[in-house]
Predict the structure.
Amino acid sequence: HGSKTTPTSHTQSMVVCFAVLVALALAAVGAMADHPAYRDVTCGSAIKLRHRESGLRLHSHDIKYGNHHGSSGQQSVTGMMDPHDANSLWRVLGAVGESCVSGTRLRCGATIRLLHQNTHTLLHSHDNFFSPLSRNQEVTALGSEAATDTNDNWTVECVDDYGFWQRGANVRLRHGATGRYLHHTGQHTYGRPIEGQREICAVAYADNNGLWHTEEGLYVKAL
């Protein structure tokens, strides 16, 4: 009699094969990140930014702040712990009035804009509105790629200056118009309707709660 493969052993074999495929896929992603053409953040890439201290991703959605207690009523920007949420993708653009060809590597000190992939609004701040919980400077998502101003500009400050903004390297994002840093206090969490999401704000000082690095994304090959 020939040997039989039982359902249990067949299932175990499938699990092992799947685990091997996942490991190979992760190895391929890691190898691509190490390839010189994919080592740096480039214009046109859609990225997720991870807050170093808390692990949350910079996030937005079509939910507005209230327009009371000094808030603007504009689209809210929050921090989200789920790494798989598509509302945490931001496309890298050049500064207002400047073209940035897709695939252009970004030097440390470059000024950029971040376009929210799903709502097509831009990461924005202003000095005349307060964040709802901590009462720091408010950060919102506003306008569009065509409807934009200097309040959408952010300067990339590299902690370790490799010359270019490298994937996975810690950076601070300094607001172009007010000089304040993109920040999460590590303490302020929203209730309904966005329960569990964290407040994102801008502050005048540079500390570890203003450190961010790129994680998941769709990275354009460097020119």
